[in-house]
Amino acid sequence: MFTLHSTLDDAQRYYFDVRRRAASCGRDPNALKVFLAATFVLGEVAEAENLSTPHGLDEFVDKVVPLLQERGVFRTEYSGTTLRDHLGLAPVSRP
Length: 95
Known about the structure:
mainly alpha, 2 domains, 4 helices, 2 strands
């Protein structure tokens, strides 16, 4: 599940509510994965936030990911073939 909240309190309330609802429907709340959106602004000055374009993800991937890879904190290749593999999630068991 992917979600966006402006405060930590809102995000935590949402997370615990979704876990509660999953359990009430017979789902394992521990199997629920919630990914919070993050916004990054790259720039040399405080005003850069106001100058950013809708292409911020491209800029992040082009400028920040290579730095993280050089430092060994972000993968340089994927070992699996599915998103579940990449996230380290167990295969889904279907009846």
